[in-house]
Amino acid sequence: MFSPPPSWTQQLPKPDVLRIRQATDRQQVLTKPPGSLGQLEQLAIQLSGLQVMDQPTVDPIQITVFAGDHGVCEEGVSAFPQEVTAQMIANFAGGGAAISVLAKQLGASLEVVNLGTVGDVPVLAGVRNESIAPATANLAITMAMTEDQAYAALTSGDAVAERAANAGCRLFIGGDMGIGNTTSAAAMACALLNEAPQQLVGPGTGLDTAGVSHKSTVVGRALERHGDNMDPLAVLASLGGFEIAGLTGAILGCAARGIPVLVDGFIVSVAALLGMRQQPGLRDWLLFAHRSAEPGHARVLEAMNANPLLDLGMRLGEGSGAAVAVPLLRAACALHNNMASFSDAGVSNKNATS
Question: Does the model's pTM come out above 0.85?
Answer without folding.
Answer: yes
